[in-house]
């Protein structure tokens, strides 16, 4: 059955949605609500006291501890995107300084230093979710044997028209199939492609994700009250597909 990850905040700014969770307490409360709505994993971008994304060990620790207190046992994933710390060496040093570890961390393979970062996370015991945005990323994953340290492959088709996103996803998945990469895959989009990608993931039996990081709107284009509402819609679509006879 399709697993749903709740992506709670991402790079969104506070003015984009009044329910965007930024503080540890807000993120923890949203994590609990998202899990109650049907999410199995949460993915967050920890923020410092000024609301900026951060990989600092104290910032990460406060968020991870808050989530674990509010939603015990739920796997917690965080971002290591290069926009948080542009210098690859500094980003790697920040990760190595973590004192409280998340369960998972996403690594965008198109970014400088991604391979070393992935192997470092694996050495620390953090599950690696490889962000694959293009066919070239998929080829890099194979070439550098990253499947051996990956918990999940994130096929991310963001921006553009839904049809273009679907075509790009198909090309990426074809590369993974050609090399028989046997790692669980999660397919998701963003904004215009968010719901089409989610439906495509359900139809293909892949994991998926939804949350305010990816979209502020329901499938009919209406603004949602928050993350739990998005997860609930996604869970309903998963259950409806199963009821209709989709074996996934």
User: Structural class per helix/strand content?
Assistant: alpha/beta
What level of helicity do the residues show?
40-55%
Spatially, the strands of the biggest sheet line up as: 7-6-5-4-3-2-1-8
Q: The biggest beta sheet, please?
A: 8 strands, parallel
Order of helices and strands: EHEHEHEHEHEHEHEH
Ends apart, CA distance between termini: 5 Å
Mean pLDDT across every amino acid position? 95
Shape: globular
Rg over CA atoms: 17 Å
- Percent strand equals 15-25%
Low-confidence stretches: none
Number of DSSP strand runs: 8
Number of helices: 8
Based on the structure, what is the oligomeric state of the protein chains? single chain
Compact summary:
The protein has about 250 residues and is α/β, with parallel strands linked by helices. Helix content is about 40%, strand content about 15%.
């Amino acid at each position: 059955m399709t697993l749903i990850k709740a992506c709670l905040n991402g790079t969104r700014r506070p003015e984009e949605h009044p329910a965007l969770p930024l503080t540890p307490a807000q993120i923890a409360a949203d994590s609990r609500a998202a899990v109650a709505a049907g999410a199995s994993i949460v993915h967050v971008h920890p923020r410092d006291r000024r609301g900026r994304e951060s990989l600092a060990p104290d910032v990460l620790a406060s968020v991870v501890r808050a989530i674990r207190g509010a939603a015990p046992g739920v796997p917690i994933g965080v971002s290591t995107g290069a926009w948080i710390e542009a210098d690859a060496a500094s980003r790697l040093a920040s990760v190595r300084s973590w004192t409280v570890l998340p369960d998972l961390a996403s690594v965008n393979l198109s970014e400088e230093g991604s391979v070393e970062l992935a192997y470092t996370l694996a050495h620390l015991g953090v599950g690696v979710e490889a962000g694959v945005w293009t066919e070239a990323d998929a080829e890099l994953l194979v070439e550098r044997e990253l499947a051996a340290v990956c918990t999940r492959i994130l096929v991310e088709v963001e921006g553009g028209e839904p049809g273009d996103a679907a075509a790009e996803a198909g090309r990426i998945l074809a590369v993974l199939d050609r090399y028989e990469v046997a790692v669980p895959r999660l397919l998701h989009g963003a904004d215009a492609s968010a719901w089409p990608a989610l439906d495509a993931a359900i139809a293909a039996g892949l994991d998926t994700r939804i949350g305010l990081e990816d979209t502020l709107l329901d499938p009919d284009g209406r603004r949602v009250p928050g993350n739990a509402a998005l997860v609930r819609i996604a869970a309903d679509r998963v259950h409806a597909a199963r009821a209709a006879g989709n074996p996934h």
